[in-house]
Amino acid sequence: MRVLIAPDKFKGSLSAREAAAAIAEGLGQFPGITCDLCPVADGGEGFADALAARVERIGYIRDPLGRLVTAGCGWLDGETAVIEMSDASGMHRLKPGERNPWETSTFGTGQLIRHAVAGGASHVLVGLGGSATNDAGAGMAAALGWQFLTSDGEPMDPRPANFLAIERIEPPEEESLPRVTAACDVRNPLLGPRGASRVYARQKGADDRMIEHLEMAVDHLAGLVAEQMGIDHRELPGAGAAGGLGYGLATFCGAELQPGFTIAASALRLEERIAASDLVITGEGRLDSQTLYGKAPAEVARLAKAHGKPVALVCGQCEPGSEAAKWFDFVISLDSLESAPELCVANAAALTAIAAGRIAQWSLRT
Which positions of the chain have pLDDT values less than 70? Predict the structure, then answer.
């Protein structure tokens, strides 16, 4: 029996790669089972780890406040780079008292893209999510050589605090970016009631007054882009993702915005691997009503059903009565094996292996 193992991360306990390895370990006690490990992601945290065959660690990257940190550039193959914006520009880089989207920048994300291009990437995949920024990708653009100038031609650091002083935008002298694709799982526009500032800035440290200032500053920048470059992506679905980085990638890199799972599935040849399997096992930290809204396990199940393959799920917790459970032929939660939450987290790998054994027993009986 050939089993495709395609879990997402178990947030707070196992990466997608670790979860896949634990499931494979649990299946290893059953003769005749061949495992194909295919950790997946839906564009957020864990995107690069799930897709990349190798990850370079780069030590000169700027965090959201400009401090030097080490961040990763993953490689799916020799020509496709995989980057998580949150690794350079994410909330986890800041202490709670440092959160300030008026001052934070995506410059480090641009550095990662630049590193990928210098390394020979012909395609760059960028996972959006977990950002500490609200700069519409201007910092990212600056790292790629775009200039943001005052009316006197003075260069400005393009963080929101400086946006209203910017009057001219100049492209890099040499524009030679490869194809860029952004993994984007929200549909928010850049501005307005559903835009980046009003929906997401508060969790990044903004109060009501700052939110209105951010809205004004970002609108000014986008207006300059529309006037001087003839490009207006303000209403593009997903433009507001990651503090407007979706807008910035589309505007300054010509990026296409796609659902994260769609990108991951294509890069991993997921449908082809499902078709070649006899059983599909997926997983995530919690199975609940949100699972059905573009989350990786539900999308894996959808593809498995389309190919007539049975699909089982391992999860940390399962919401009682969840409609999502009906998408799977077999569901087992780690908290059904260990009731103490702290032990469930601490022993997640071992419990996942046990759960995989239960799935194998179920499958061999059916």
Answer: none
